[in-house]
Design goal:
Blueprint (H helix, E strand, L loop, with lengths): L9 H5 L24 H6 L1 H29 L2 E2 L9 H4 L4 H7 L1 E7 L2 E6 L4 H14 L2 E6 L2 H13 L1 H7 L6 H10 L6 H5 L4 H14 L4 E6 L3 E8 L2 E9 L3 H12 L10 E8 L4 E11 L2 E9 L15 H12 L3 E6 L6 H12 L6 E5 L10 E4 L8 H9 L5 E4 L5 H12 L3 E6 L7 H8 L3 H7 E13 L5 E2 L4 H12 L17 E2 L13 E12 L2 H8 L5 H10 L5 H10 L5 H7 L14 H9 L1
Parallel strand pairs: 1-4, 3-4, 11-15, 11-16, 12-13, 12-14, 14-15
Antiparallel strand pairs: 2-3, 5-6, 5-10, 6-7, 8-9, 9-10, 16-19, 17-18
Helix pairs in contact: 9-11, 11-12, 15-16, 16-18, 18-20, 20-21, 22-23, 23-24
The chain binds zinc ion.
Length: about 625
Protein backbone atom coordinates (compact mmCIF):
# COMPACT_ATOMS: atom_id res chain seq x y z
CA UNK A 1 0.00 0.00 0.00
CA UNK A 2 1.42 3.36 -1.01
CA UNK A 3 2.05 5.77 1.82
CA UNK A 4 -0.47 8.58 1.67
CA UNK A 5 0.99 11.92 0.78
CA UNK A 6 1.49 13.59 4.10
CA UNK A 7 4.00 15.77 5.90
CA UNK A 8 4.79 16.37 9.51
CA UNK A 9 4.11 20.09 9.77
CA UNK A 10 2.27 22.91 8.05
CA UNK A 11 5.57 24.63 7.33
CA UNK A 12 6.75 21.51 5.64
CA UNK A 13 3.49 21.21 3.75
CA UNK A 14 3.83 24.74 2.52
CA UNK A 15 7.54 24.78 1.71
CA UNK A 16 8.27 25.20 -2.00
CA UNK A 17 7.69 21.89 -3.64
CA UNK A 18 10.64 19.72 -4.43
CA UNK A 19 10.07 17.59 -7.47
CA UNK A 20 8.20 14.64 -6.09
CA UNK A 21 10.70 12.06 -7.26
CA UNK A 22 9.80 9.38 -4.79
CA UNK A 23 6.10 9.62 -5.51
CA UNK A 24 4.60 7.67 -8.38
CA UNK A 25 5.08 9.79 -11.45
CA UNK A 26 1.44 10.06 -12.43
CA UNK A 27 -0.85 12.30 -10.49
CA UNK A 28 -2.84 9.37 -9.19
CA UNK A 29 -3.83 10.36 -5.67
CA UNK A 30 -2.73 8.14 -2.84
CA UNK A 31 -6.25 6.84 -2.56
CA UNK A 32 -5.57 3.80 -4.65
CA UNK A 33 -8.94 2.27 -3.97
CA UNK A 34 -10.16 3.77 -7.25
CA UNK A 35 -10.31 1.18 -10.03
CA UNK A 36 -7.13 1.12 -12.09
CA UNK A 37 -7.12 1.77 -15.79
CA UNK A 38 -6.87 -1.39 -17.98
CA UNK A 39 -3.78 -3.04 -16.55
CA UNK A 40 -3.41 -5.78 -19.13
CA UNK A 41 -3.01 -3.46 -22.07
CA UNK A 42 -0.47 -1.46 -20.13
CA UNK A 43 1.82 -4.38 -19.43
CA UNK A 44 2.55 -4.99 -23.08
CA UNK A 45 3.73 -1.50 -23.72
CA UNK A 46 5.45 -0.95 -20.42
CA UNK A 47 8.65 0.29 -22.01
CA UNK A 48 6.81 2.92 -24.02
CA UNK A 49 4.88 3.77 -20.88
CA UNK A 50 8.03 4.34 -18.92
CA UNK A 51 9.35 6.66 -21.57
CA UNK A 52 6.17 8.65 -21.74
CA UNK A 53 6.05 8.81 -17.98
CA UNK A 54 9.54 10.24 -18.00
CA UNK A 55 8.50 12.80 -20.63
CA UNK A 56 5.46 13.75 -18.60
CA UNK A 57 7.64 14.14 -15.57
CA UNK A 58 10.07 16.43 -17.37
CA UNK A 59 7.27 18.49 -18.85
CA UNK A 60 5.66 18.74 -15.48
CA UNK A 61 8.86 19.96 -13.87
CA UNK A 62 9.22 22.56 -16.62
CA UNK A 63 5.72 23.85 -16.03
CA UNK A 64 6.25 24.01 -12.30
CA UNK A 65 9.43 25.99 -12.85
CA UNK A 66 7.56 28.46 -15.04
CA UNK A 67 4.82 28.83 -12.45
CA UNK A 68 7.42 29.35 -9.75
CA UNK A 69 9.17 32.01 -11.82
CA UNK A 70 5.85 33.70 -12.53
CA UNK A 71 5.16 33.77 -8.78
CA UNK A 72 8.56 35.31 -8.10
CA UNK A 73 7.94 37.97 -10.77
CA UNK A 74 4.65 38.87 -9.14
CA UNK A 75 6.09 38.72 -5.63
CA UNK A 76 3.70 35.94 -4.68
CA UNK A 77 3.95 32.68 -2.76
CA UNK A 78 4.26 29.54 -4.84
CA UNK A 79 3.35 25.96 -4.09
CA UNK A 80 2.92 22.70 -5.93
CA UNK A 81 -0.29 20.92 -5.06
CA UNK A 82 0.74 17.77 -6.83
CA UNK A 83 1.16 15.68 -3.73
CA UNK A 84 -0.48 18.04 -1.30
CA UNK A 85 -3.06 16.41 0.97
CA UNK A 86 -6.05 18.65 0.41
CA UNK A 87 -8.67 18.11 3.10
CA UNK A 88 -12.37 18.14 2.24
CA UNK A 89 -12.91 20.88 4.82
CA UNK A 90 -10.55 23.14 2.91
CA UNK A 91 -11.80 22.24 -0.54
CA UNK A 92 -15.43 22.68 0.44
CA UNK A 93 -14.85 26.30 1.44
CA UNK A 94 -15.30 27.19 -2.21
CA UNK A 95 -18.12 25.84 -4.33
CA UNK A 96 -16.99 23.76 -7.29
CA UNK A 97 -18.62 26.03 -9.82
CA UNK A 98 -16.80 29.05 -8.43
CA UNK A 99 -13.53 27.19 -8.19
CA UNK A 100 -13.73 26.08 -11.81
CA UNK A 101 -14.66 29.42 -13.34
CA UNK A 102 -12.05 31.32 -11.35
CA UNK A 103 -9.45 28.53 -11.42
CA UNK A 104 -8.88 28.88 -7.71
CA UNK A 105 -9.13 26.43 -4.82
CA UNK A 106 -8.86 26.47 -1.06
CA UNK A 107 -6.27 23.84 -0.21
CA UNK A 108 -5.60 24.25 3.49
CA UNK A 109 -7.54 25.42 6.51
CA UNK A 110 -5.96 25.53 9.95
CA UNK A 111 -7.95 27.43 12.58
CA UNK A 112 -8.84 30.72 11.00
CA UNK A 113 -5.98 30.57 8.50
CA UNK A 114 -6.93 29.60 4.97
CA UNK A 115 -4.62 28.98 2.01
CA UNK A 116 -5.96 29.57 -1.46
CA UNK A 117 -4.25 28.62 -4.71
CA UNK A 118 -4.84 30.27 -8.06
CA UNK A 119 -3.19 30.29 -11.46
CA UNK A 120 -3.44 34.00 -12.17
CA UNK A 121 -4.26 36.87 -9.82
CA UNK A 122 -7.10 39.13 -10.90
CA UNK A 123 -9.35 41.79 -9.50
CA UNK A 124 -12.22 39.36 -9.48
CA UNK A 125 -10.18 36.79 -7.57
CA UNK A 126 -9.11 39.40 -5.02
CA UNK A 127 -12.72 40.39 -4.46
CA UNK A 128 -13.76 36.77 -4.16
CA UNK A 129 -11.04 36.06 -1.62
CA UNK A 130 -12.02 39.09 0.43
CA UNK A 131 -15.56 37.73 0.56
CA UNK A 132 -14.22 34.37 1.63
CA UNK A 133 -12.31 36.05 4.46
CA UNK A 134 -15.41 37.89 5.62
CA UNK A 135 -17.60 34.85 5.38
CA UNK A 136 -15.22 32.57 7.25
CA UNK A 137 -13.86 35.22 9.61
CA UNK A 138 -10.46 34.01 8.59
CA UNK A 139 -7.24 35.25 7.07
CA UNK A 140 -6.49 34.01 3.56
CA UNK A 141 -2.98 33.62 2.21
CA UNK A 142 -2.81 33.34 -1.58
CA UNK A 143 -0.45 31.04 -3.49
CA UNK A 144 0.26 30.95 -7.19
CA UNK A 145 0.20 27.47 -8.68
CA UNK A 146 0.58 25.79 -12.05
CA UNK A 147 -2.34 24.70 -14.24
CA UNK A 148 -1.50 21.13 -13.31
CA UNK A 149 -1.88 21.89 -9.64
CA UNK A 150 -5.28 23.50 -10.13
CA UNK A 151 -6.44 20.66 -12.36
CA UNK A 152 -5.43 18.16 -9.76
CA UNK A 153 -7.21 20.04 -7.01
CA UNK A 154 -10.34 20.52 -9.11
CA UNK A 155 -10.40 16.80 -9.81
CA UNK A 156 -10.57 16.17 -6.08
CA UNK A 157 -14.04 17.63 -6.11
CA UNK A 158 -15.27 14.41 -7.65
CA UNK A 159 -12.73 11.83 -6.56
CA UNK A 160 -13.58 12.27 -2.91
CA UNK A 161 -17.13 11.20 -2.26
CA UNK A 162 -17.36 13.24 0.96
CA UNK A 163 -16.60 16.37 -0.94
CA UNK A 164 -19.66 15.97 -3.10
CA UNK A 165 -21.80 15.80 -0.04
CA UNK A 166 -20.00 18.77 1.38
CA UNK A 167 -20.65 20.86 -1.65
CA UNK A 168 -24.24 19.91 -1.77
CA UNK A 169 -26.05 22.26 0.53
CA UNK A 170 -22.89 23.80 1.88
CA UNK A 171 -24.82 27.00 2.20
CA UNK A 172 -28.23 27.58 3.58
CA UNK A 173 -30.22 29.47 1.00
CA UNK A 174 -32.73 32.16 1.80
CA UNK A 175 -35.41 30.55 -0.33
CA UNK A 176 -35.21 27.31 1.65
CA UNK A 177 -35.38 29.18 4.93
CA UNK A 178 -38.42 31.08 3.71
CA UNK A 179 -40.08 27.91 2.54
CA UNK A 180 -39.76 26.32 5.97
CA UNK A 181 -40.69 29.47 7.83
CA UNK A 182 -43.88 29.55 5.76
CA UNK A 183 -44.78 25.97 6.56
CA UNK A 184 -44.25 26.37 10.27
CA UNK A 185 -46.12 28.90 12.35
CA UNK A 186 -44.12 28.26 15.50
CA UNK A 187 -41.69 25.88 17.13
CA UNK A 188 -44.38 23.56 18.43
CA UNK A 189 -44.84 22.21 14.92
CA UNK A 190 -41.19 21.38 14.55
CA UNK A 191 -41.50 17.81 15.83
CA UNK A 192 -44.18 16.93 13.35
CA UNK A 193 -42.39 18.49 10.40
CA UNK A 194 -38.85 17.39 11.23
CA UNK A 195 -39.62 13.71 10.71
CA UNK A 196 -40.56 14.40 7.13
CA UNK A 197 -37.50 16.16 5.79
CA UNK A 198 -34.10 14.86 4.74
CA UNK A 199 -31.17 15.20 7.14
CA UNK A 200 -29.72 17.89 4.92
CA UNK A 201 -32.83 19.95 5.41
CA UNK A 202 -33.21 19.40 9.15
CA UNK A 203 -30.87 22.23 10.04
CA UNK A 204 -32.47 24.64 7.61
CA UNK A 205 -35.82 23.68 9.08
CA UNK A 206 -34.54 24.20 12.63
CA UNK A 207 -33.26 27.67 11.78
CA UNK A 208 -36.41 28.57 9.86
CA UNK A 209 -38.59 27.57 12.82
CA UNK A 210 -36.38 29.47 15.26
CA UNK A 211 -36.72 32.65 13.23
CA UNK A 212 -40.45 32.21 13.16
CA UNK A 213 -40.71 31.71 16.92
CA UNK A 214 -38.20 34.44 17.75
CA UNK A 215 -35.83 32.07 19.50
CA UNK A 216 -32.43 33.42 20.50
CA UNK A 217 -30.63 30.06 20.70
CA UNK A 218 -31.03 26.57 19.30
CA UNK A 219 -29.61 23.71 21.35
CA UNK A 220 -28.90 20.38 19.67
CA UNK A 221 -27.83 17.73 22.16
CA UNK A 222 -26.82 14.11 21.74
CA UNK A 223 -28.37 11.99 24.46
CA UNK A 224 -28.14 8.30 25.18
CA UNK A 225 -31.35 7.38 23.37
CA UNK A 226 -32.03 10.26 21.05
CA UNK A 227 -31.15 13.77 19.92
CA UNK A 228 -32.83 16.71 21.64
CA UNK A 229 -33.57 20.02 20.02
CA UNK A 230 -34.41 22.88 22.33
CA UNK A 231 -35.11 26.56 21.71
CA UNK A 232 -34.44 29.42 24.04
CA UNK A 233 -37.13 32.03 23.84
CA UNK A 234 -37.30 35.09 26.09
CA UNK A 235 -34.59 33.55 28.21
CA UNK A 236 -36.33 30.21 28.84
CA UNK A 237 -35.43 26.88 27.23
CA UNK A 238 -38.21 24.85 25.63
CA UNK A 239 -38.13 21.33 24.24
CA UNK A 240 -38.82 21.67 20.54
CA UNK A 241 -38.22 18.23 19.04
CA UNK A 242 -36.60 14.84 19.48
CA UNK A 243 -34.81 12.97 16.71
CA UNK A 244 -33.79 9.34 16.49
CA UNK A 245 -30.25 8.68 17.67
CA UNK A 246 -29.33 7.32 14.20
CA UNK A 247 -29.55 10.81 12.71
CA UNK A 248 -26.88 12.23 15.04
CA UNK A 249 -23.83 11.51 12.90
CA UNK A 250 -25.27 13.22 9.85
CA UNK A 251 -26.63 16.18 11.79
CA UNK A 252 -23.38 16.87 13.62
CA UNK A 253 -21.29 16.53 10.44
CA UNK A 254 -23.49 18.93 8.58
CA UNK A 255 -23.51 21.41 11.46
CA UNK A 256 -19.73 21.29 11.55
CA UNK A 257 -19.44 21.82 7.82
CA UNK A 258 -21.81 24.75 7.95
CA UNK A 259 -19.99 26.26 10.92
CA UNK A 260 -16.58 25.73 9.34
CA UNK A 261 -15.05 23.69 12.16
CA UNK A 262 -13.18 20.37 12.01
CA UNK A 263 -15.53 17.52 11.20
CA UNK A 264 -13.47 14.72 12.64
CA UNK A 265 -12.88 16.41 16.00
CA UNK A 266 -15.37 15.65 18.74
CA UNK A 267 -13.30 15.56 21.92
CA UNK A 268 -12.50 19.24 22.34
CA UNK A 269 -14.73 22.32 22.25
CA UNK A 270 -14.92 24.16 18.92
CA UNK A 271 -16.41 27.48 17.87
CA UNK A 272 -17.68 28.35 14.43
CA UNK A 273 -20.06 30.59 12.60
CA UNK A 274 -22.76 30.18 10.00
CA UNK A 275 -23.58 33.14 7.82
CA UNK A 276 -26.78 33.13 5.82
CA UNK A 277 -27.11 35.82 3.19
CA UNK A 278 -30.61 37.21 3.11
CA UNK A 279 -31.89 39.78 0.61
CA UNK A 280 -31.49 42.79 2.85
CA UNK A 281 -29.24 41.62 5.61
CA UNK A 282 -27.15 38.71 6.66
CA UNK A 283 -27.98 36.39 9.47
CA UNK A 284 -25.02 35.35 11.58
CA UNK A 285 -25.21 32.31 13.80
CA UNK A 286 -22.48 31.66 16.34
CA UNK A 287 -22.10 27.94 16.84
CA UNK A 288 -20.36 26.31 19.78
CA UNK A 289 -19.58 22.59 20.04
CA UNK A 290 -18.90 20.94 23.38
CA UNK A 291 -18.04 17.28 23.99
CA UNK A 292 -20.52 15.48 26.27
CA UNK A 293 -20.97 11.89 27.50
CA UNK A 294 -23.12 10.87 24.55
CA UNK A 295 -21.55 12.92 21.79
CA UNK A 296 -21.68 16.67 21.68
CA UNK A 297 -23.82 19.57 22.69
CA UNK A 298 -24.25 22.24 20.04
CA UNK A 299 -25.54 25.71 20.78
CA UNK A 300 -26.40 28.04 17.93
CA UNK A 301 -26.87 31.66 18.88
CA UNK A 302 -28.80 33.67 16.35
CA UNK A 303 -27.34 37.14 16.09
CA UNK A 304 -30.12 39.29 14.83
CA UNK A 305 -29.53 43.00 14.51
CA UNK A 306 -33.22 43.55 15.18
CA UNK A 307 -32.95 42.23 18.72
CA UNK A 308 -30.38 44.84 19.63
CA UNK A 309 -32.23 47.75 18.05
CA UNK A 310 -33.60 48.83 21.41
CA UNK A 311 -33.66 52.59 21.96
CA UNK A 312 -32.58 54.05 25.27
CA UNK A 313 -36.08 55.40 25.86
CA UNK A 314 -37.56 51.92 25.45
CA UNK A 315 -35.31 50.12 27.92
CA UNK A 316 -37.95 50.40 30.60
CA UNK A 317 -35.96 52.70 32.91
CA UNK A 318 -38.37 55.15 34.48
CA UNK A 319 -38.94 57.90 37.00
CA UNK A 320 -36.13 59.42 38.97
CA UNK A 321 -33.73 56.67 37.83
CA UNK A 322 -34.26 57.73 34.21
CA UNK A 323 -33.79 61.43 34.87
CA UNK A 324 -30.63 60.83 36.86
CA UNK A 325 -29.12 58.34 34.43
CA UNK A 326 -29.84 60.64 31.51
CA UNK A 327 -27.95 63.42 33.25
CA UNK A 328 -24.95 61.14 33.79
CA UNK A 329 -24.89 60.00 30.17
CA UNK A 330 -24.80 63.59 28.98
CA UNK A 331 -21.65 64.31 30.95
CA UNK A 332 -18.51 64.33 28.80
CA UNK A 333 -16.52 62.17 31.21
CA UNK A 334 -16.81 59.58 33.90
CA UNK A 335 -17.81 55.97 34.03
CA UNK A 336 -21.18 54.26 33.70
CA UNK A 337 -21.24 50.60 34.71
CA UNK A 338 -23.91 47.98 34.19
CA UNK A 339 -23.95 44.90 36.40
CA UNK A 340 -25.74 41.58 36.35
CA UNK A 341 -25.21 37.95 35.47
CA UNK A 342 -24.91 36.67 31.88
CA UNK A 343 -28.16 37.13 30.00
CA UNK A 344 -29.39 40.02 32.12
CA UNK A 345 -29.38 42.42 29.19
CA UNK A 346 -26.27 44.42 30.19
CA UNK A 347 -24.96 44.62 26.64
CA UNK A 348 -28.31 45.72 25.28
CA UNK A 349 -28.30 48.57 27.79
CA UNK A 350 -24.77 49.58 26.84
CA UNK A 351 -25.64 49.52 23.15
CA UNK A 352 -28.73 51.62 23.79
CA UNK A 353 -26.57 54.18 25.63
CA UNK A 354 -24.06 54.22 22.76
CA UNK A 355 -26.85 54.66 20.23
CA UNK A 356 -28.19 57.58 22.18
CA UNK A 357 -24.74 59.18 22.23
CA UNK A 358 -23.97 58.37 18.62
CA UNK A 359 -23.62 61.51 16.53
CA UNK A 360 -21.10 62.79 13.99
CA UNK A 361 -19.47 64.97 16.65
CA UNK A 362 -18.68 62.03 18.91
CA UNK A 363 -16.00 59.47 18.28
CA UNK A 364 -17.17 56.23 19.83
CA UNK A 365 -14.97 53.15 20.02
CA UNK A 366 -15.89 49.79 21.51
CA UNK A 367 -13.84 46.86 22.64
CA UNK A 368 -15.89 43.69 22.67
CA UNK A 369 -15.55 39.98 23.18
CA UNK A 370 -16.85 39.21 20.63
CA UNK A 371 -18.47 41.86 18.42
CA UNK A 372 -21.92 40.41 17.98
CA UNK A 373 -23.80 43.29 16.45
CA UNK A 374 -22.55 45.97 14.14
CA UNK A 375 -23.59 49.48 15.07
CA UNK A 376 -23.56 52.15 12.37
CA UNK A 377 -21.15 54.99 12.94
CA UNK A 378 -19.38 53.31 15.85
CA UNK A 379 -15.88 51.83 15.66
CA UNK A 380 -16.09 48.36 17.08
CA UNK A 381 -13.03 46.27 17.79
CA UNK A 382 -12.76 42.75 19.00
CA UNK A 383 -10.63 41.12 21.66
CA UNK A 384 -8.25 38.48 20.33
CA UNK A 385 -7.00 36.46 23.25
CA UNK A 386 -4.72 34.27 21.13
CA UNK A 387 -2.90 37.36 19.86
CA UNK A 388 -2.60 38.92 23.29
CA UNK A 389 -5.10 41.64 22.37
CA UNK A 390 -7.02 41.65 25.63
CA UNK A 391 -9.19 44.28 27.30
CA UNK A 392 -6.24 46.06 28.91
CA UNK A 393 -4.09 46.21 25.75
CA UNK A 394 -7.08 47.04 23.58
CA UNK A 395 -8.17 49.83 25.86
CA UNK A 396 -4.71 51.41 25.78
CA UNK A 397 -4.72 51.27 21.98
CA UNK A 398 -8.21 52.77 21.82
CA UNK A 399 -7.27 55.71 24.01
CA UNK A 400 -4.57 56.65 21.53
CA UNK A 401 -7.37 57.00 18.96
CA UNK A 402 -8.67 60.14 20.67
CA UNK A 403 -12.20 58.89 21.40
CA UNK A 404 -14.97 60.76 23.20
CA UNK A 405 -16.81 57.66 24.33
CA UNK A 406 -15.34 54.23 24.98
CA UNK A 407 -17.20 51.03 25.61
CA UNK A 408 -15.25 48.19 27.23
CA UNK A 409 -17.09 44.87 27.11
CA UNK A 410 -16.15 43.91 30.63
CA UNK A 411 -13.88 45.01 33.44
CA UNK A 412 -12.57 41.98 35.26
CA UNK A 413 -9.03 42.78 36.34
CA UNK A 414 -7.15 45.60 37.98
CA UNK A 415 -5.19 46.54 34.88
CA UNK A 416 -8.31 47.12 32.80
CA UNK A 417 -10.05 48.84 35.71
CA UNK A 418 -7.14 51.24 36.22
CA UNK A 419 -6.95 52.21 32.55
CA UNK A 420 -10.72 52.67 32.38
CA UNK A 421 -10.65 54.88 35.48
CA UNK A 422 -7.76 56.95 34.13
CA UNK A 423 -9.69 57.41 30.90
CA UNK A 424 -12.80 58.44 32.83
CA UNK A 425 -10.79 60.98 34.81
CA UNK A 426 -9.17 62.47 31.72
CA UNK A 427 -12.16 63.55 29.71
CA UNK A 428 -13.64 60.35 28.31
CA UNK A 429 -16.99 58.80 28.95
CA UNK A 430 -16.41 55.12 29.64
CA UNK A 431 -19.23 52.58 29.64
CA UNK A 432 -18.64 49.02 30.72
CA UNK A 433 -19.97 46.02 32.60
CA UNK A 434 -18.86 44.31 35.75
CA UNK A 435 -19.93 40.98 37.15
CA UNK A 436 -21.87 41.55 40.37
CA UNK A 437 -25.39 40.72 41.44
CA UNK A 438 -26.46 44.17 42.53
CA UNK A 439 -25.65 47.75 41.62
CA UNK A 440 -24.24 48.45 45.07
CA UNK A 441 -22.01 45.38 44.74
CA UNK A 442 -19.99 47.14 42.04
CA UNK A 443 -18.14 49.30 44.57
CA UNK A 444 -16.74 46.45 46.74
CA UNK A 445 -16.01 44.54 43.52
CA UNK A 446 -13.85 47.38 42.14
CA UNK A 447 -12.08 47.78 45.44
CA UNK A 448 -11.41 44.06 45.77
CA UNK A 449 -9.71 44.19 42.37
CA UNK A 450 -7.33 46.67 43.94
CA UNK A 451 -8.72 49.94 42.61
CA UNK A 452 -7.89 52.90 44.85
CA UNK A 453 -10.97 54.40 46.54
CA UNK A 454 -9.76 57.96 45.90
CA UNK A 455 -9.66 57.23 42.15
CA UNK A 456 -12.88 55.25 41.97
CA UNK A 457 -15.06 57.79 43.74
CA UNK A 458 -14.44 60.69 41.35
CA UNK A 459 -14.37 58.47 38.25
CA UNK A 460 -17.68 56.69 38.68
CA UNK A 461 -20.89 58.40 37.51
CA UNK A 462 -23.55 55.74 37.85
CA UNK A 463 -24.08 52.02 38.30
CA UNK A 464 -26.97 50.12 36.76
CA UNK A 465 -28.03 46.76 38.17
CA UNK A 466 -30.45 44.84 36.02
CA UNK A 467 -32.30 41.64 35.14
CA UNK A 468 -34.67 40.70 32.34
CA UNK A 469 -38.15 39.43 33.08
CA UNK A 470 -40.66 38.06 30.62
CA UNK A 471 -43.44 40.34 29.47
CA UNK A 472 -46.97 39.05 29.87
CA UNK A 473 -48.69 38.41 26.56
CA UNK A 474 -50.93 41.43 25.92
CA UNK A 475 -53.49 39.29 24.15
CA UNK A 476 -54.13 36.68 26.81
CA UNK A 477 -52.93 37.80 30.27
CA UNK A 478 -55.36 37.17 33.09
CA UNK A 479 -55.88 38.67 36.57
CA UNK A 480 -53.51 37.00 39.01
CA UNK A 481 -54.80 34.74 41.74
CA UNK A 482 -52.09 35.14 44.35
CA UNK A 483 -51.36 33.09 47.42
CA UNK A 484 -51.57 35.22 50.58
CA UNK A 485 -47.84 34.80 51.12
CA UNK A 486 -46.90 36.03 47.61
CA UNK A 487 -49.21 39.00 47.99
CA UNK A 488 -47.80 39.78 51.43
CA UNK A 489 -44.28 39.56 50.06
CA UNK A 490 -45.10 41.87 47.18
CA UNK A 491 -46.75 44.38 49.49
CA UNK A 492 -43.83 44.29 51.87
CA UNK A 493 -41.29 44.96 49.09
CA UNK A 494 -43.35 47.75 47.56
CA UNK A 495 -44.15 49.15 51.01
CA UNK A 496 -40.45 49.71 51.67
CA UNK A 497 -39.87 51.90 48.62
CA UNK A 498 -37.69 54.86 49.53
CA UNK A 499 -39.70 58.05 50.15
CA UNK A 500 -36.97 59.96 48.31
CA UNK A 501 -37.84 58.17 45.09
CA UNK A 502 -41.06 60.21 44.74
CA UNK A 503 -42.97 57.00 44.00
CA UNK A 504 -46.30 56.62 45.75
CA UNK A 505 -47.84 53.16 45.90
CA UNK A 506 -51.38 52.57 47.10
CA UNK A 507 -50.71 49.26 48.81
CA UNK A 508 -54.38 48.56 49.41
CA UNK A 509 -55.33 48.91 45.76
CA UNK A 510 -52.61 46.75 44.19
CA UNK A 511 -53.69 44.54 41.30
CA UNK A 512 -51.53 42.05 39.46
CA UNK A 513 -51.84 40.05 36.27
CA UNK A 514 -50.60 36.59 35.42
CA UNK A 515 -49.81 34.44 32.39
CA UNK A 516 -52.68 32.38 31.05
CA UNK A 517 -51.94 28.65 31.19
CA UNK A 518 -51.46 27.42 27.64
CA UNK A 519 -51.27 30.98 26.35
CA UNK A 520 -52.67 31.85 22.94
CA UNK A 521 -51.74 31.79 19.26
CA UNK A 522 -50.01 35.18 19.53
CA UNK A 523 -47.56 34.06 22.25
CA UNK A 524 -47.02 30.53 20.87
CA UNK A 525 -48.76 29.12 23.92
CA UNK A 526 -46.32 30.64 26.40
CA UNK A 527 -48.45 33.28 28.10
CA UNK A 528 -45.44 35.58 27.78
CA UNK A 529 -44.03 37.45 24.80
CA UNK A 530 -40.81 39.44 24.80
CA UNK A 531 -38.95 40.76 27.82
CA UNK A 532 -38.52 43.92 29.81
CA UNK A 533 -35.66 45.04 32.02
CA UNK A 534 -35.95 45.67 35.75
CA UNK A 535 -33.39 48.06 37.17
CA UNK A 536 -31.75 49.57 40.19
CA UNK A 537 -29.61 52.57 39.45
CA UNK A 538 -27.54 54.72 41.72
CA UNK A 539 -25.47 57.79 41.04
CA UNK A 540 -22.25 58.87 42.58
CA UNK A 541 -23.41 61.61 44.93
CA UNK A 542 -21.39 63.48 47.52
CA UNK A 543 -22.70 61.14 50.22
CA UNK A 544 -21.73 57.96 48.36
CA UNK A 545 -18.36 59.48 47.52
CA UNK A 546 -17.71 60.38 51.14
CA UNK A 547 -18.74 56.92 52.23
CA UNK A 548 -16.29 55.30 49.83
CA UNK A 549 -13.47 57.58 50.89
CA UNK A 550 -14.39 57.02 54.52
CA UNK A 551 -14.07 53.26 54.12
CA UNK A 552 -17.79 52.47 54.31
CA UNK A 553 -17.64 50.15 51.40
CA UNK A 554 -19.71 47.05 51.98
CA UNK A 555 -22.49 46.30 49.52
CA UNK A 556 -24.99 46.74 52.32
CA UNK A 557 -23.66 50.17 53.35
CA UNK A 558 -23.62 51.46 49.78
CA UNK A 559 -27.12 50.17 49.18
CA UNK A 560 -28.43 51.81 52.35
CA UNK A 561 -27.12 55.19 51.22
CA UNK A 562 -28.42 54.72 47.68
CA UNK A 563 -31.88 53.80 48.97
CA UNK A 564 -31.94 56.84 51.22
CA UNK A 565 -31.16 58.98 48.22
CA UNK A 566 -34.09 57.61 46.26
CA UNK A 567 -32.88 54.43 44.54
CA UNK A 568 -35.47 51.71 44.10
CA UNK A 569 -34.29 48.11 43.98
CA UNK A 570 -34.69 45.73 41.04
CA UNK A 571 -37.35 43.87 42.98
CA UNK A 572 -39.23 47.10 43.63
CA UNK A 573 -38.92 48.24 40.02
CA UNK A 574 -40.05 44.81 38.87
CA UNK A 575 -43.06 44.74 41.17
CA UNK A 576 -44.04 48.23 40.04
CA UNK A 577 -43.96 46.88 36.50
CA UNK A 578 -45.99 43.89 37.66
CA UNK A 579 -48.51 46.25 39.23
CA UNK A 580 -48.74 47.92 35.82
CA UNK A 581 -49.57 44.54 34.30
CA UNK A 582 -46.33 44.29 32.31
CA UNK A 583 -45.08 41.14 33.99
CA UNK A 584 -46.01 38.71 36.74
CA UNK A 585 -44.97 38.69 40.40
CA UNK A 586 -43.52 35.23 39.88
CA UNK A 587 -41.15 36.50 37.17
CA UNK A 588 -39.93 39.39 39.29
CA UNK A 589 -39.32 37.36 42.43
CA UNK A 590 -37.49 34.68 40.49
CA UNK A 591 -35.29 37.17 38.65
CA UNK A 592 -34.34 39.52 41.42
CA UNK A 593 -32.90 37.34 44.23
CA UNK A 594 -35.23 39.05 46.63
CA UNK A 595 -33.16 38.28 49.70
CA UNK A 596 -30.40 40.60 48.53
CA UNK A 597 -32.70 43.56 48.38
CA UNK A 598 -35.05 43.31 51.28
CA UNK A 599 -33.20 44.47 54.32
CA UNK A 600 -35.46 42.90 56.95
CA UNK A 601 -33.79 39.73 58.22
CA UNK A 602 -36.97 37.62 58.06
CA UNK A 603 -37.48 38.31 54.37
CA UNK A 604 -38.90 35.28 52.55
CA UNK A 605 -36.45 33.95 50.02
CA UNK A 606 -34.89 31.10 48.12
CA UNK A 607 -37.63 28.47 47.65
CA UNK A 608 -39.73 31.03 45.82
CA UNK A 609 -36.90 31.63 43.41
CA UNK A 610 -36.72 27.99 42.48
CA UNK A 611 -40.46 27.81 41.93
CA UNK A 612 -40.45 30.83 39.70
CA UNK A 613 -37.64 29.51 37.55
CA UNK A 614 -39.27 26.23 36.71
CA UNK A 615 -42.66 27.81 36.01
ZN1 LIG B 1 -50.92 35.00 24.48
Amino acid sequence: MAKPASASSIEELLSPAKPAVSAPATATPAKSAAPQKPVTAKKITSATDKLSEKMTEIQWQEKEKLAQQHATDLGMNYISLRAFPIAPEALSLILRKEAETRRLVAFLKVGNEIRVALTEPSEDATKFIKELEDREHAHVEVYLVSDDSIERALKLYDTLPEVKEVIYGYRIEEKDLERYAEEISDFRQLQERIGKVSTTDIITLMIGASLKSNASDIHVEAEEEDVKIRYRMDGILHDAATLPRETWKQIISRLKLLAGVKINVDDVPQDGRITIYLTNEKLDIRVSFLPTSFGESVVMRLLRPKSIALEFDNLGIRGLALTRLQAEIEKPNGMIITTGPTGSGKTTTLYAILKKLNSPEEKIITLEDPVEYKLKGINQSQIQHDKGYDFAKGLRAILRQDPDVVMVGEIRDLETADIAIQAALTGHLVVSTIHTNSAAGAIPRFLSMGVKPFLLAPALNAVIGQRLVRRLCEKCKVPAVLSPSSLAQAKQILGSISPASNIKVDIGALKFMDAKKGGCEFCHGQGYKGRVGIYEIFNMTKTVEEAILGGAISEYQIQEIALKEGMITMAQDGLLKAADGLTSIEEVLAASNVDTFVTEPEAPVAPKTEEGKTA
